[in-house]
Structure formats: C-alpha cells, structure tokens
Model the fold of this input.
Amino acid sequence: MPANRFNGYTDYEVGIGLRVPHYDHILSKKPIVDWFEIISENYMVDGGRPLKILDQILDQYRVVQHGVSMYFGSAQPLNRDHLKRIKELTKRTKTPWLSDHLCWGSVDGRYTHDLLPLPYTFEAVRTTAERIRMVQDFLEIPLAVENVSSYAAYNDSEMTEWEFLNEVVHAADCGILLDVNNIYVSSQNHDFDPMDYVNSIPAERVAQIHIAGHSKFEKYILDTHDHPVLDPVWKLYGRAIERSGPTATLLEWDDNIPSFDEVHAEALKAHRFLRAAETAMSVGAGLREEAHV
Amino acid sequence: MNLLELQRRMAEDVRRPLTEDYEMRSFADDGRPVADIAASYISPNSRLSSFERLEIYNRQYWFRLITAVSEDYPTLNALLGQKRFDALILAYLDEHPSTSWTLRDLGAKLPAFLAAHPEFAGRRHRLAVDVANLELAYVDAFDGKQLDPLTTEEAQAIGADSRLFLQPHLRLLELAYPVDNLVLAVKKEMPEVDIVSSAATHRDVTNRAKIPPVKRGKLFLAVHRYDDSVYYRRLEKETFLLLEGLRLGASVAAAASQAFAKSKLTPDAQALLLQQSFAHASQLGWLCPLPGTDVALPHLEMKVN
Done:
C-alpha cells in the first residue's frame, strides 16, 4: 500500500519540513533523516543561498516538493509562468511526487496568499479537477492534493468536505496528501466527527500524510503548526495508517520552531503507528497464504 | 453565486482594510453592513457568526502581508516606529496588492511609494527612503540572478568599444545618508525566515532596534552577492558613474568619459581609479559579457579625459 502510483511507487517513511533555522545543523551534523519536504516557493528563485543550500541537501537527502500557491480551486486559468518555475524546480529536486492544497487563493490576477476553502459544489469539483489534470499533464509527475483547515463554510455547499475531496480526486485521478491535523481542526470548527472523514477517504489514493500541531482559541481552532502533535491528531493518524498502510509521513512545524532534534524526535513518534501497520499487514498476508494452502 | 462570483466576493472582503485596532470593518465602501455581506455566502455555526468567520480570513490576510513586507524592511520599521510603519504598509498594500504567486516581490514598490508619500516619514523622509532603497537592494542581491562573469581572458580583452552587462544581482545606490552601517546592524539581529504557514493570528513585532542619529552625507554604494552572502561596498563617485553608464548600455569609453567628466582628480589619479574600478569589478564578478558578443575589442587606452 505505501508505494502507489500517486507517490511514484516510493516507500518513504518519516520526514520533516526543511526550515531555515535548521540549515546549519543539518549540513554540519548530517543527521539521519529519511526525507525532507521543501516548500517549493522558497526555492523558486533565480539564485543565491536558497538554491545553494538546496543543492547541498539534495546531495545527501531525498526531497519532496510541497507547494502553497498553486490554488487548484481558483476559477480562472492557471498561471503558466508559475508552472514553468515549478517544473524547473522538479527537475532539480527529482521529487517523486508533488503536493499542493485543495483550495483557492487568487482571482483576477490578485493573490491573497491564503489557503481559502472552496464551496463544496459540483461546479467547484469540475473546475478544480480540470485544473489538477492540466497541472499533472504539464509537470509530468504524480500530484497529491492536501485537504486544508478551514474556519468558514459556505451557504452554497452541496456536500461534506470529505465527499468533495473524494469527488475531486476521482475526477482528477490524483493522489491525496491527507493532513490529519487539518481534519481535526476543521472538525472542531465545523462540528463533525473527524473519524467519519478519515474513514471515508479512498485509502488507495493516499500518497502522503501530514501531521502537525494547532492552537485553540476561545471560539475556534487555528492551524498554526507551532506545537507538538496533540493526542486526538495522533489517534486520527493511527486510523489513517491502519487504513492505508505505512505511508510517507511528514511533521510540519513552521512557527516557534524548536531545535532540529526536538522536531525530528516529535516526527519519529509516528514510527509507533507505522510499525504496527506493518505488523498488521504481514500478519494479514500470512493469514491469506495459510488460507490459500 | 457561481464559483468565480463567490471568489470575487470573498477576495474583496478579505482584502478590505482593517480598522485601526486590526479588526474587520463594519461597513463596506458602499455603506452596506459587512455582516449582511458575510451572511449572504458564509454560514454561521453555534459559536461564530458569518461576520466573525470572515473576519478570521480578513485579519489573516493583513497580518500575513504586513509581516512579509516587514521582514524585508526591518530597519525602516525600526526607524519609523511600529505605528507609522504599519500605517505606511497598510496604505502601500492597499494601493499595491499582490499580483504574484510569490511574497518575495510584495515589497518591491515600497521605496518608490514612500518617496511619493512623505507624510509617512515626516522630517526623516529622505533618510527613510534611503533605508528602504538599501533594504530592497539587499532582497534583490540575496537571491537575484547570477550570470557567468567575464573570464580572466575576457576581462583582459575589454576595449574602448566593449559593452558589458552588469551582474543582475548587483544594485548601485546613490544615497543622501550613509545608512549602510545602520542597516547592517539591524540585519544582523534579524532571523532569516521562510514562507511556510498561512496561519497568522496577530501582527508580529520582530524588531525593536534603536536607531541612532544619522548625519547627512552622500554615499555611493554597491550591493552585491559574493559567495552567496550579500555585501555592501562603498564606491568612489566616479566608479559609481562608470558602472551606471555600463549598466545603461554605454560603451566602456563612453561610460568612462561621462564618469570622469566632472572629476577633480588629476589625470593620473583618474587613470589609476579607472584601472582599479575595472579590476575590482572583475574580481567581484560584476562584469559579464553581453550575450552573443565578443568582448575582445580594441584595447582602451587608460586616458579618459
């Protein structure tokens, strides 16, 4: 299950986000890390230190690209210049798959730089799926779309968020970057059971999983990526792994970033679930063989 | 409301300027209550009204963009103080919303905007414009494009009629205040950051540096990248004019002639400075061949006047 066509048939385990405060530690101590996720936009520049550091990382580690500005759900034509820049970077990183968010963020040439939620309508399914297909065709690598955290719901929505996600990935024939922290955050903001969401995902399309921390406010929860992963999120993660098998997992920690070792140790807690899923899979395979005999 | 209509509606609401207390405005420009607008497409839940849900995005938009610009202009922020700086950025972003997928270029027009709006800086207006120009030059030099510089042979073959490219990441500044040390001191205190999370809950205050008095004094400065670090290099006026001439496409002879036209240096000193200027520019990789041309043209006699 972990290696599938949506993650380029790779078997990546636990990775962490490559962040500026950790550059020196990584390059000098060369810690053992299965893979790094980079924010594509931080390296879509013409030259200088960001690309030099990236090349040094690429010499020693596997890197997967994650974007924040594709805006698959924006209703207008794709930005070709942006796509060309991404494709250039994919050639440099040789990322086996590429992910971005199931959201919108720009209209009429103006950018909000936010991951704005889509209305869960059939029109949005068609528009978004068509754009994902176009991007996938242009980039020529597998794409995975990530569910976002949201704080608003639209009057026009015609289905649940997970139904919308399923409709889009089937229509686009793309993978899913399942962010279980985002599921938890949205479940608290929109009063649904997050386990219903996880149980409804087509497990065979999950290319990667995100885990992260969040912040609780008086009336809502915000996806801040500035804390360790909380228990309810680990629980969702455990269930997601149970369904999809050991899957490439990445911890996002983007604000109040602690030491590299602390971030890495938090990420490696995922191994507990991955090993359990591996054991369950091998036991299942053994039982099937026995039955066959 | 179809998808495009909804996105236009929400984009207008998200980009609407906040109140002075960083809250969502109660009324739109046309006088309609924003609560009514929000309720027309956003549903409430048991804890948050449609207005409050929209406000989360409205505030996030402004906090994120203000933070992004502030990170590029920490010295300007310290010089103007938080309140004035925020007023400047809000007015700037209202006039120049983002038109790019990257936040990197968001502050690119800020120095020009500040130059045209002295009301945001008061008596220190020119100083503030100089600081802004230098901080923008740093951004450009940090990750700007780098061309292959002239080889040693090509540099030796520079002739009077040669036309050269300057390294794209090199910025030349004519400043009324010597702000290089000031900006360097503040930059050293600033952590490098990257673009990651979209969540923004408050206005980040990242710089509380005290700005010492700065005396007026002309400064010609090159901001450039060498070995992946950004450097400021003070230039002689003649060297600055020479490089400016080359950047504008003049031949070596024409740029040199213009650079030394009003120089008070003796002819020997001029010749020496011209030679040194080219030597330093070559060593630092600032000079590049024009694409598709041969630098090897007749040698320049080192006599400029």
